[in-house]
Amino acid sequence: MTITLLCDRIDSAIGQILTVMDQGRLCALDFVEHEDRMIRSLEKRYPLFQLTAAPIENSISDRIRNYFTGDLTSVEQIPVKTQGTEFQTLVWQTLRKIPVGQVWTYQKLAIAIGKPKAVRAVGMANRLNPVQIVIPCHRVIGANGNLVGYAGGIDRKQWLLHHEGVALSSLPPSLQL
Questions:
Q1: What is the C-alpha radius of gyration for the chain, rounded to an integer number of angstroms?
Q2: What's the rounded Cα separation, in Å, for the pair 117 and 18?
Q3: Would you state the pLDDT for residue 57?
Q4: What is the distance between the alpha carbons of residues 106 and 84, in angstroms, rounded to a whole number?
Q5: Using the 8-state DSSP alphabet, how is residue 86 labeled?
Q6: What is the DSSP string of 101-118?
């Protein structure tokens, strides 16, 4: 059975964003230049699907637009459908608990899920996050304070943290704009 997924394009300060919704839940969010990566991820989760343009106005896209215009908590209640492993789902759920304006290390995230030795696995789950920004993997940094591992690119990660009020000047020099 072919599943119809709704797709929308959102202009933002850091590039055009693609969103994909499955029955009112966000199942993919990526930047337009990474559309191929997003499609490959969707193919793993939906063996048969078709993308259909979403209505110009929809609540999920509106909340993402609001995030970029300064309503930083507007994405917190967006329902998601990530379809990862049990471990990935645990990591992604925990990422949503990192408050706006804060950063955690991969180690802190591993401890928060009760698996302090799983730092690399946490990093891999972060890398496979299908709904960037809404599941805020950009709020995770390396143990040495470096901005590492953002699929959208380090410049975007830096922009997102600055947008959320992270005092980059108070972080180590490697994090400063």
A1: 16
A2: 34
A3: 63
A4: 19
A5: H
A6: T--EEHHHHHHHTT-TT-
DSSP 8-state assignment for residue 132 = T
49 forms bridges with which residues in the sheet?
A: 3
Q: pLDDT tens digit string along 48-96?
A: 999 999 875 678 999 999 999 999 999 999 999 999 999 999 999 999 9
Catalytic residues: 137
- Res. 168: pLDDT tops 90: no
**In this structure, what DSSP letter does residue 63 have?**
H
* The two three-digit tokens of residue 80, written as one number: 């998601």
Phi, psi of 25 (to 5 degrees): -120, 140
pLDDT greater than 70 at residue 27: yes
Give the three-state DSSP class for 134: coil
Pairwise CA distance, residues 64 & 14, whole Å: 13
